[in-house]
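Worked example 3. Consider a protein that binds zinc ion.
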Amino acid sequence: MTLALRNELAATAKRMSALGLTPGMSGNVSVRSERGLLVTPSGMAYDELQGEDMVQLADDGTARQGQRAPTSEWRLHRDIMAARSDVGAIVHTHSLYCTALSMLRQPLPAVHYAIVLANTDEVPCADYATFGSAELATNVVAALRGGNACLMANHGMVALGATLKEALRVAAEIETLANQYWHACQLGTPHVLDGRELDKVRARFAEYGQPRRRRP
Ligand SMILES: [Zn+2]
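Given these inputs, the predicted complex is written out as structure tokens:
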């Protein structure tokens, strides 16, 4: 079970890189396991990652002995997981458009209805703190509130989900939204959807997709 989860975590990190969300060796991913939190290792090329390279954090959040060093952002993953029992996986990226917007230290507004996929009316921007610091983890937890994505000032973004697949999907959707927002801003001031409209979108999404198969 744990090996399967390790392999899934490594595959998600590779997929995140293949999607162009993580320049160089930036970005990291985590998932809840039966034995605690599994995170990607620090400073390894994505195309070399294997399940055995994933790092199991001890109860105090540090790496267990005899393993690779965990991502420098392990506090970020640990503190979000501790604050949000609804979250099973976290993706952190330095994707181009989210990172560019994070330099303005402003939220990403609801300029497209797809923002509801992040369970929020706007993607907030967490206050700046040095990468890897406890202060940064605190700032991100505070900015997220109940939402599933936030920008990180002068740094990047973080996306949450019940599963690895869901967290990566939110990261990709929010990066696309930031990209579209940037392009719209070249032409003028984009219109922002209000809360009432976003509620209607949420109701529509609840009915969207393929009908569920009946179980025998
Ligand atoms: Zn980072």
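Take a moment to read the result before moving on. The chain is about 40% helix and 15% strand. The mean pLDDT is 92.
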